[in-house]
Amino acid sequence: MKRSHVNSILRDADAFIRSFGYVLPPFAYFTPEQMARAGGQYRERGLGWDITDYGQARFDELGLFLFTTRNGRLGDLRAGRGMLYAEKIMISRRDQLSPMHRHFLKAEDIINRGGGKLVIELFAGAEDGTIDRAADVTVPVDGQLRTVQAGGRLALEPGESVTLMPGVWHAFWGEGDDVLIGEVSTVNDDAADNDFEMNIGRFASIEEDEAPQHLLVSDYATWMD
């Protein structure tokens, strides 16, 4: 992705988020230099802007906008003490696919915060961790258990949510319009806790055609060394 495209997505995403009355925290608006000086917890916890095309350079078709507002440490989760949770706000554009994947550790509530329908395609995990293409999948939707066939789809209206436990394979996209998505989960580790069905990466490769407006989480290693 070109940095100019990333900067444009950031501006559009901020406006879309604000249109629903949701305001990002002050550190969202740090300049790159301010974020580099602040350092520490933002890099360690993976807080901030995250735009991915999964390394495929087709963001409008295969991509996701995310902003991590809070996150604990993986060590705390494993020890069962401390800050054990994370929260994100995300945008899935109309017909923009977040590809099939599972998490090894993360349990998450995916919440449609507004916009179009959020469509989620589901598969159970086989004993070896791969996709089970025959088994039904049962997940809580706002506390009510719902069962779908392998590859079945849930269409969440604004306000609805689904709980996904580790090992449940899922893909999602917006239907009818762009969707503002909330995610409340156990500690989030995007570097190691995403297992994709496709042979793709988690983060975008950035072509620096202009200066960054704000740093992405994936920029921190370069700017904060």
UniProtKB/TrEMBL annotation:
**Its EC number(s):** 5.3.1.15
What reaction does this catalyse? D-lyxose = D-xylulose
Q: Which cofactor does it need?
A: Mn(2+)
Q: Where are the transmembrane segments?
A: none
Q: What class of enzyme is it?
A: isomerase
Which Pfam families does the protein's record reference? Lyx_isomer
Gene3D superfamilies reported in the protein's UniProt record: Jelly Rolls (2.60.120.10)
SUPFAM superfamilies reported in the protein's UniProt record: RmlC-like cupins (SSF51182)
Please indicate if the UniProt record lists Manganese as a keyword. Answer: yes
CDD domains the record matches: cupin_EcSI
Q: Name the InterPro entries on file.
A: D-lyxose_isomer, EcSI_cupin, RmlC-like_jellyroll, RmlC_Cupin_sf
GO molecular function terms attached to this record = D-lyxose ketol-isomerase activity; metal ion binding
**What highest taxon heads this organism's lineage?**
Bacteria
Name the UniProt key words of this record, in alphabetical order. Answer: Carbohydrate metabolism, Isomerase, Manganese, Metal-binding
User: Record keywords: Cell cycle included?
Assistant: no
Belongs to which family?
Belongs to the D-lyxose ketol-isomerase family.
Query: What protein is this chain from?
Result: D-lyxose ketol-isomerase
Q: Which organism is it from?
A: Pacificitalea manganoxidans
Taxon lineage = Bacteria, Pseudomonadati, Pseudomonadota, Alphaproteobacteria, Rhodobacterales
